[in-house]
Amino acid sequence: MRIPCPWCGDRPLSEFTYGGDASKARPKNPEKASPEEWVDYVYLRDNPAGKHTEYWHHSGGCRSWLMVTRDTRSHEISRAVLAKPQPGGATS
Amino acid sequence: MSRQTNRLPEGGLVDRTQVISFTFDGRKFKAHPGDTLASALLANGIHLTGRSFKYHRPRGIYTAGAEEPNALVTLGNGGRTEPNTPATMVEVYDGLKARSQNRWPSLKFDLLSVNSLLKPFFPAGFYYKTFMWPRSFWYRLYEPMIRRAAGLGTLANESDPDRYETAHTQCDVLVVGAGPAGLMATREAARAGVNVLLVDEQPLPGGHLTGEADKVDGKSGAAWAAGMADELRAMENVCILSRTTVYGRYDGMTFGAVERVGDHLSPDSALPRQRGWTIQTRQLINAAGAIERPLVFAGNDRPGVMLAGAARVYVNRYGVLPGRNVVVFTNNDDAYRTARDLSQAGANVTLVDSRAKEKVHSRGVLPASVEMHFEQYISKVKGRSHVGRVTLAPSGTEIACDLVCVSGGWTPSLHLLSHVGHRPEWDEASTSFVMKEPGDEARAAGGAAATFDLNETLREGSKAGKAAAEACGHGIPGKTNLPKADDLPAYHIEPLWRVPSAMSRADGSFVDLQNDVTVADLELATREGFGHAEHAKRYTTLGMATDQGKLANVNALGILSQLQGRPISETGTTTFRPLTAPAAFGAIAGQARGSAFRPIRRSAMHLWHENHGAVFTQAGLWLRPYFYPREDEDFAAAVKREVLAVRSSIGMVDVSTLGKIELKGPDAGNFLDRLYINAFSKMKVHRARYGVMLREDGMVFDDGTVSRLGESHYFITVTTANASAVMQHMEFCHQVHWPHLDVQFCTVSETWAAMAVAGPKARDVLARAVNGLHLENHAFPFMAVGEGTIGGAPVRVFRISFSGELAYEVYTPAGYGADVWEAIMAAGESDGITAYGTEAMTVMRTEKGHVAGPELDGRTTAADLGLGGMMSVRKNFIGRWMASRSGLEGQDRLQLVGLKPVRSDETFRMGAHLVKDIGVTGVDVSHGHISTSVYSPTCDHFIGLAMLRNGRERHGETLQVVSPLHDESVSVEVVGPVFSDPDGEKMRG
Ligand SMILES: [Zn+2]
Fold first, then answer.
1. Is residue B17 located within the same domain as residue B130?
2. Most CB within 10 Å of its CB: which of B605, B697, B729, B814?
């Protein structure tokens, strides 16, 4: 399996570290977030058969955190962008 | 040494100008370079090569390729022992030594073949029921007996002395198989300009052409293929790997392969034995060919029974005639070429075809001397260790023979097309499974696509090469010149899954030769409701041997579908999984074994430690001094001496392994405030502070120190074990949560060597060594940070104490590490400065009640560890909100306490549980557990840190420490966690 890093190109799986579900966002306003919102963010995960958006860290490369869309049935990767928002709104 | 009785006077691709010798079971034989062990044994008239897996039946060479089920041998001795090697894949070199397997005491006279007589009592599923009663017999009798009797070769117990390596490569198009389809595909794809990797398991290119008499472009198939390979090798964008088996396809077009680099050479060769390849490609062309199927009849496993295609290979490629009086038994046209080639080589050939005469296309290829029987089949085989006679049915004709060639049709090799989940479909016309939808990245050509006509194969290969290049965005200039092969009659087949007489009788009609599975076993599986392909496989173990059912699966499915009266398409096929062929662990591990299994990290002062007798311990990849024994000292004595030296005078420990991260930027302080439970943005420059990080779920993640080197410049240390995880976490927080913060950070763990100087004399000694830094208490108080030089080397000095003593951490660029260490050692010599290791460090941090790895086990909150007061309530930080959940507060939490034995000479161990009453034990009565226990030289008795339910309220209570595993129980008193200098006067003084 290879992951297309926006900086480094197609790189082998062994250079990356999995970072979990990227569909959950940390509560924007932590002070006001309810305990339910925190529990949802920290613990609750879907387990889809199909496309899944997840974080991957290019730990053996440019050290960027990526948001990768992977099909959990085929491991096909349809999208990989930098997790860090880019100037001008571009994501990769 | 005997004559090669079955070697033909001429022909074949072996080098007849050279004679080499090898031994089999200690007997010496002659061979020629180019022989396999199988062809050489057959040349010497040896068919019997092994005993079968379950029944110890005599077995002979059955194929000429990697799919060989019977002729598995053991090569080499000692650590080089390589069991279960197909003799058909072993290239003979001068001096090769091979042994037969699974026989005792000898191959010809095998006492365990009584299993064969016991066959009715060894049916399918025998593991599950036959031996289940009485239960005690299983352990005492059945299991040991079965273990001895069933099995193949035996592994060596020594480590393998051979060298292996691993390699990575990438290409645009991977072509598997250098037969006619693969060669054409490679040429066409390469002409289009893409990078092509052609991988083939044989030493010679050509695939089945090396074993055929038919011509291509007027040349022998082998000569045509050799010419093609030369042409391809001259192309810059083609790489050919021969003697290489692609064993698996993995996600994202990654393939695994093993190249047999030195297997065909003597073990003294300087080359590595094998090379494990990881191949990354964009397109796959599967030109792996097809595998011939056996026919299923009583006695079809006798030595002297062989696949028809294999017999032809022995004649044409090796110049070996495996029998003089030959019966060819087939249900298809392909085996007629075997009859033709063996007859032309001088054998007496009788052809038996299960089909009606009018369905056969190939009668014309046979010489007139070949006698033909249509609508007949073999019902019986006579001869115990070799075939001597077969009986035909229904006619009853008996034919004396010494070789029976069988062909049940051809099975395309689909493995690489189906490993990632594509499902093959049943194709009536070719009577085989084919891959109709292999996906956009893969295609098949030739035998692997159930194309058995040579001219069609050449055309298909060329087409596949073009299509793969086009898929990579490359068109092909010019027209393709297709070679022209001899025309042969069309391949026609009529299924014959088992001969009609192989019904409902345990008559030794083998479906899976390697795992000894018979028609009777499949009948039993069906009767008992295990008839689905996936069930029958597990019930009978069919297809589960080293050949992975390459020969057996399709016949088994055919028989199951007959038994159940439904079409094969509904009986299902089993799933193909990597590996398609066995691969040695060595080839996958490569050089990553023994001390090279993983890298070793050594600090800049490592040599000094070595020279001063340090005993090392592993901390992750690091080697750290554990303790420094002096002569006659044991572990305990050395640790005690090191601790007392620090407590009474001065010691120094190498702490270079700490994770170190440097941060800069106007928002660096703000960023740290969000990472740690305590605040750093308002800390003064040139000050340090202890800090704790939580995970988002509120549990403690890591601890360490944070120092402010400048207005927007910080330096943090994190634990050795968590160094990379903390860095990764910080990058996540910065890139994902707070990308707007203007901060940059970088790991500098390797950049700085670090040492802690501790003890009452630390200030005096360091003051003698350091220049440019005043160390008096008022100028450089507890938690001060400063810079200076030692022996000219720049140092950063932090007044931080882990031991509880007056202490300084000294950091210097790693290149100066050894010099600075020695300079401080020299300055402290008059005060008896003592190097101490990680164990003394652990003892002292326990005496001081500092938490470390055993307490930070992922289940403890800051409050549990007595650090709750550090949690700032004025800022947001990772973990704050989940840490304040009500469930993580209150009396039921395990809290950090100290323990001391009631009787000062008693000891207790880490992991033991704390209970009130030793009469009742169990997890539910545990009040907590011991996380750290050490002998404290300062207290002169054992001390411990423990996580105890509501522990902070229980100081003074007496509890029992129990370790039922060791049958131990000790009375302990709960105390505060700080045993040494609880008010911190020493480290602040
Ligand atoms: Zn990258």
1. yes
2. B605
On whether both B641 and B690 belong to a single domain, the answer is no
Label residues B756-772 b or e (16+ Cβ within 10 Å = b). bbbbbbbbbbbeebbee
Neighbours of B929 (CB within 10 A): 16
Per the CB < 8 Å rule, is A75 touching B252? yes
The distance of B697 to chain A (nearest Cα, Å) reads 6
The residue segments making up the domain with residue B313 are 295-408
Asked if residue B774 and residue B642 are part of one domain, the reply reads yes
B724 CB neighbours in chain A (<8 A) are 59
Rounded-to-integer distance, Cα B354 and Cα B363, Å: 14
Instruction: Choose the final residue of a domain: B564, B580, B596.
Output: B564
Which of A12, A26, A65 has the CB atom closest to B735's CB atom? Answer: A65
B739–A84 C-beta distance less than 8 A: yes
In a domain, B589, yes or no: no
**Which residues of chain A make contact with B731, given a CB cutoff of 8 A?**
57, 63, 65
Pick from A19, A31, A42: CB nearest B696: A42
Residues B754 and B848 in one domain: yes
Taking the C-alpha atoms of residue B206 and residue B219, their distance in angstroms, rounded to an integer, is 12
CA distance B670 to B662: 15
**In a shared domain, residues B4 and B21:** yes
Mean pLDDT split into 10-residue runs, chain B, 989 residues = 86 96 95 97 94 84 95 88 91 94 65 52 51 53 56 76 94 98 97 97 97 95 98 97 96 95 87 95 97 96 97 98 98 97 97 97 94 96 93 96 98 94 91 93 97 96 96 84 92 95 76 90 90 88 85 94 90 83 91 90 97 96 96 96 98 97 98 97 96 96 97 97 96 96 97 98 97 96 98 97 95 98 98 98 96 94 94 91 88 94 95 86 82 96 97 96 89 96 88
Nearest CA in chain B to A84: B735
Q: Which amino acid is at B948?
A: L
Same domain, B313 and B404: yes
Q: Are residues B263 and B252 in the same domain?
A: yes
Which CATH number belongs to the domain containing residue B49 in this structure? 3.10.20.440
- Given an 8 Å threshold on Cβ–Cβ distance, is A57 in contact with B732? yes
In a domain, A18, yes or no: yes
CB-CB: which of B280, B736, B876 is closest to A83? Answer: B736
Sign of CA pseudo-dihedral B490, B284, A74, B535: positive
B5/B62 same-domain check = yes
Q: Which of residues 239-258 of B touch A (CB under 8 A)?
A: 250-252, 254
Residue B519 lies in a domain: yes
Q: Is the ipTM of this complex over 0.95?
A: yes
In a domain, residue A35? The reply is: no
**What phi and psi, each to the nearest 5 degrees, are found at residue B945?**
-110, 140
Instruction: Using the Cα atoms of residue B672, residue B673, residue B676 and residue B682 in order, give the sign of their dihedral.
Output: positive
Does the pTM of the predicted model rise above 0.95?
A: no
Nearest CA in chain B to A4: B252
Using CA atoms in the order B117, B121, B122, B127, what is the torsion angle rounded to 10 degrees? -150
What CATH number should be reported for the domain holding residue B820? 3.30.1360.120
Tell me the chain B residues in contact with residue A63 when contact means C-beta distances shorter than 8 Å.
731
Number of domains in chain B: 7
The dihedrals phi and psi of B335, each to the nearest 5 degrees, come to: -65, -15
The CATH number for A64's domain is: 3.30.2270.10
* Residues of chain B found within 8 Å of residue A43, distances taken between Cβ atoms: 697
Q: Which residues of chain A have a CB within 8 Å of the CB of B252?
A: 1-2, 13, 75, 77
In a domain, B584, yes or no: no
Residue A84 CA to ligand 1 centre (angstroms) = 13
CA distance A3 to chain B (A): 9
The structural domain count of chain A equals: 1
Domain at B320, CATH number: 3.50.50.60
Where does residue B663 fall: left (phi above 0), alpha (psi -120 to 50 degrees), or beta otherwise?
beta
